[in-house]
């Protein structure tokens, strides 16, 4: 399990490589590095980057999902449909990254 660094109560950046495996539309398992988890307006979002970039998941591309819980208590990763919300969440992520880099 990777060590998490809490920057403030709203965001956690992952210091060590922590892998999350998701299943794509073709039923293939794809590994992602967890970059951060962010609390924005009362909901948690997860920021991922492909562990093995390919044509579908490019190097440096950040995927963002809303985190939720299913009926059995398992984690869910939901796509963000609202473009404005997606931009706001990504901007907050970038702002926090800039703070870390300037320290």
Question: Which key terms come to mind for this protein?
Answer:
103 residues, alpha+beta, 7-stranded antiparallel β-sheet, 1 helix, disordered N terminus
Describe this structure in words.
There is one protein chain. The protein has one domain (4-102). 19% of the residues lie in helices and 46% in strands. The protein contains 1 helix and 7 strands, in the order E-E-E-E-E-E-E-H. The protein has one helix at 83-102; strands at residues 4-8, 11-14, 19-23, 29-40, 43-50, 62-69, 75-79. Strands 1, 2, 3, 4, 5, 6 and 7 form a 7-stranded antiparallel sheet that branches. Strand 6 and strand 7 (75-79) form a beta hairpin. The longest helix has 20 residues, at 83-102.
How much strand content do the residues show?
over 45%
Unreliably modeled segments:
1-8
Q: How many structural units, i.e. domains?
A: 1
Radius of gyration: 14 Å
Number of alpha- plus pi-helical segments: 1
Q: Sketch the major β-sheet.
A: 7 strands, antiparallel
Order of helices and strands: EEEEEEEH
What structural class is derived from the secondary structure elements? alpha+beta
